Amino acid sequence: MSSAVRIERDALMKLATDARAIANPPGQIPPGALAGERVSRQQGRGMNFDSLRRYQPGDDVRLIDWQATARMRTPWIRLYNEEKERPVFLLVDQRRDMFFSTRVQTKSVAAAKVAAILAWRSYHDGDRLGGLVFGDNAFSLRKCRNPGSTLPALLDDIVRFNHQVADDYPRETPNPLSLGAMLRHAIPLIPAGSWVALIGDFHDLDHECNALLTALRRRGEVSAFVMLDDLHLRLPSRGRLAARYEGHEADFSLSPHLQDGIKQNITKRLSGQETHLTQLGVRVNQIVVAGDLLRQLQKGV
């Protein structure tokens, strides 16, 4: 089957180099988790100089700044920023609604690649890595652990669920798993101070998701990578448009009025979705699946 609808593990392995080209994920960690993006202010011998303060009984004499002490004629010590690792958790949607595309690759394949790039970025940074990959009727959950041990298993999960959605389409699954249910399973295993990346199309974002995302946002930083097909921006003003879904095919005539209506409707929905997530404190990155994924991540991460 074409790589447009099915990802292979070798392809995900090759993304390790691409991951070095993106910046560290955002880390606006809230107070009470870590006192900074990836560093916390602590008295100690860390990597980065932070400030000077007067010596207090009990301070480590090795921290005394002798130049400042000579200048001020009283003992002063140097404080440093001590680097802290930050757990990274990826939630990857591989349900049937992600098996859609008009060109290049499906949303499910693009989501798999984005997840792999972010996972490799975590590996390069040495951050603890965890994740939840889910399809319509099953999911795999990995706790945040050393990226060297988690990454191979997480990539295997992505490939397995990506192949499953291609194999099962167009068969309909009764009572498919919801985004809200997956968030409920994931949240108890996401450490405070984590960066969480949600990768999917968010078609079933609902009130339950709102509450869960609000709770998750209190624990750390949350980014949404919204996979979308940009057909609505490429529709011709006239002609016939054919579509196929779940074995059913249809075609209809396009007119300038209908083209404009389709464009406005989808643009409004995507804009409303972005506004809604932003109001919940989630950083939104809209990813066009037919575009250069790495370049889009370089701009958005």
Keywords:
alpha/beta, Rossmann fold, six-stranded mixed β-sheet, three-stranded antiparallel β-sheet, 11 strands
Structural account:
With 301 residues, this protein is of the alpha/beta class. It has 2 domains: 9-31 and 85-300, Rossmann fold, CATH 3.40.50; 40-83, no CATH class. 37% of the residues lie in helices and 24% in strands. The strands form 3 sheets. Strands 6-5-4-7-8-11 form a 6-stranded mixed beta sheet, with helices on both faces. Strands 1-3-2 form a 3-stranded antiparallel beta sheet. The chain starts with 8 loop residues before the first helix and ends with a helix. This is DUF58 domain-containing protein. Pfam families: DUF58.
Strand segment count: 11
User: Strand portion, in percent?
Assistant: 15-25%
Distance between the termini: 31 Å
Number of domains: 2
Q: What's the helix-strand series?
A: HHEEHEEHEEHHEHEEEHEH
| Secondary structure: helix percent | 25-40%
Please outline the major beta sheet. Answer: 6 strands, mixed
Query: How many helical elements?
Result: 9
Residue windows where pLDDT falls under 50 for at least 5 positions: 27-46
Which shape, going by the Cα principal axes? Answer: elongated
The name of the CATH architecture of the largest domain is 3-Layer(aba) Sandwich
| Biggest sheet strand line-up | 6-5-4-7-8-11
**The CATH fourth-level homologous superfamily of the largest domain:** von Willebrand factor, type A domain
- Using the coordinates above, name the CATH class of the largest domain: Alpha Beta
The CATH topology of the largest domain is given as: Rossmann fold
- Alpha-carbon Rg, integer: 23 Å
Helix-and-strand structural type: alpha/beta
Q: Mean pLDDT, nearest integer? A: 86
